[in-house]
């Protein structure tokens, strides 16, 4: 750790320099794929607005050396699965390459002390997937991979061949989708994912059918999988998707275990690509948990990973331990 670095609260005057550093990082790690949206470097006003909001909330810091801005970090604080948590999305941090390690270590050392002091033990970051140096820094600090955001061009060819019948869902398919969604929920709670997802009510399923496009696959009369795609109505500064992008979201995708690895997933995905092309949509976004071993392998065949979310849980007895030490 270089001790001549000064870590202090971000000021409005720091925002323009912070945005410049971030744009440089985006160009380095995200301009190699035509599927990644350029929205975020063509118009940086949303990023500047986000940082301005964080400055006023007191939720942004910078690290400087001799007055030169080396990096910054901002964050949101919220309950995650009923646990006090902080989250720094990809637009909320960056550092210049020549001082990346010491800048990030200085920033995290400073801000994590504040977080833990407020009993915030769950720390989450999103970084550029190809930033191996920052990934290594966070890995050494105890962070582990959690979620990947990936993109694909709708004009890419998906050669999906399947003997299964696939059709678009209608409101009369609510019960079919409800049963498949419940199977999906149980799948996510199993090893090695261990993810708790709430049940979808009948009304929620009906709303998804009405507001997006769901394709259901059948073997004979037996429904064996589905995929859900909607169209974004706004730019999303957290996942860096842009307006009028295809979004594989909401109830997402599910294929019964006995039908995986047989081309059904690819056939469902082809429906999504064909649908997006018919609407003139250029980019498609998906996110998936890295612990979802089947999805992790499947999506990377067709999508370019852009963002990686990482998570660290600090030992929750640390503040009790500190109190006990002080009380001796």
Which residues sit in consecutive blocks of at least 5 with pLDDT less than 50?
323-328
How many distinct folded domains?
2
The major pleated sheet works out as: 11 strands, mixed
Number of strands: 15
| CATH fold assignment of the largest domain | Aminopeptidase
User: Proportion of β residues?
Assistant: 25-35%
Give the termini separation. 31 Å
CATH hierarchy: architecture of the largest domain: 3-Layer(aba) Sandwich
The helical percent reads 25-40%
What would CATH call the class of the largest domain? Answer: Alpha Beta
In short:
By secondary structure, the chain is an alpha+beta fold. The chain has helices at 15-30, 39-42, 45-57, 100-117, 132-140, 174-189, 202-211, 264-278, 293-302, 318-326; strands at 6-9, 60-65, 68-74, 76-80, 83-88, 93-95, 122-128, 144-153, 165-168, 213-219, 222-231, 246-248, 253-255, 283-289, 304-313.
3D structure, described in words:
The structure is a single chain. By secondary structure, this protein is α+β, with helices and mostly antiparallel strands. It folds into two domains: 6-147 and 311-326, 3-Layer(aba) Sandwich (Aminopeptidase), CATH 3.40.630.30; 155-281, Aminopeptidase (3-Layer(aba) Sandwich). It is built from ten helices and 15 strands. Helix 6 (174-189) packs across helix 7 (202-211). The longest helix has 18 residues, at 100-117. The chain is globular and about 70 Å long. 37% of the residues are buried.
Which key phrases capture this entry?
single chain; 328 residues; Aminopeptidase; eleven-stranded mixed beta sheet; four-stranded antiparallel beta sheet; 10 helices; 15 strands; 37% helix
